[in-house]
């Protein structure tokens, strides 16, 4: 920072947005009232400059010792190469802690960061949108025992925009650079502007955490946030998605089982190639091209080459491998063709409720209205007040008696946190008594 920016930082970080200390006033509906500085200050440089990238075990050991000796929470972020590389692995890990400064670690050169994870065990990790970064951090041996999610905190506070840049500007009064969020972080060496951007992403994360904790406390939502953060830490790794090919964009156009088989064969062939080449599947073959081939069912390479996505830039050998996938689908016996749609494990789609069970449809309508009103009163998104799937399940199959104890137990069984159970149970008890119009 320049001297002027450093002075501004010293004053503005004392309270959210550089506002005077809260005098106890509240805004309408408990809305956040950070009162940021009139003119946001561009944040151009990390306080201690851009640190060198850690790319060997000796330097990593020094970082681990420094961060273990630091104090307070640790800001953590990770950069992936989505859209460029196969999978969601981390290509840069950023950390900042009082007493240790900022560290930028190359997890390609240092793929095992379990020692760092162990050194930070018991320390609160501050992440923005934690569920996005935790899977790739888990792969390299880093898992928090406690965390504070600044994006989730912003949602609970009722902020209309919860991206990191918007939060830092609205709460702390600083403008973060936004230009490098979608670059190819697998690039080596990483350009200096990208490293500056990465370091700045954790520069004010702990300051943002402190401001949001005060705001949560002012709104009476701090305990809610703590329960949410604890649930994220305790959540098991997500199970692999069944039939991931069904998420191909444009699948709604594909109706026939033989066509579904073409999508499946092309998707699986593309995935094998993308994994082998370590590139994003979309760079191998687009979803639109897969769907186009499924709808057209070409019988030979010449017909395939005439389709969108298989034009003149696709070589003969590539066309032959895609045609082979189509031919495999065409040759499958009827018994091996995929079924349309996916097995439903929960209630049917709500649009079908009125025909299948009008009483359940009436309950769901009343529940949605009640949850919406409560969420508006509490100034937070409905999906953060209670998972919509939990509401649907309770309304489709009400617990025995449909009393408060039964509803509370059902919600807890679906994963609702205690604060959610307490607030939503009365709403659902009332909704379960709704009659068909």
UniProtKB/TrEMBL annotation:
Residues 1-48, 333-352 are annotated as: Disordered. Residues 256-336 form the HRDC domain. InterPro entries: 3'-5'_exonuclease_dom, Exo_C, HRDC-like_sf, HRDC_dom, HRDC_dom_sf, RNase_D-like, RNaseH-like_sf, RNaseH_sf. GO terms for molecular function: 3'-5' exonuclease activity; nucleic acid binding; nucleotide binding. One of its GO terms (biological process) is nucleobase-containing compound metabolic process. Pfam families: DNA_pol_A_exo1, DNA_pol_A_exoN, HRDC. It comes from the Bacteria. Residues 1-14 have a biased composition (Polar residues). Residues 33-43 have a biased composition (Pro residues). Residues 15-32 have a biased composition (Low complexity). This is Ribonuclease D. It comes from Streptomyces cadmiisoli.
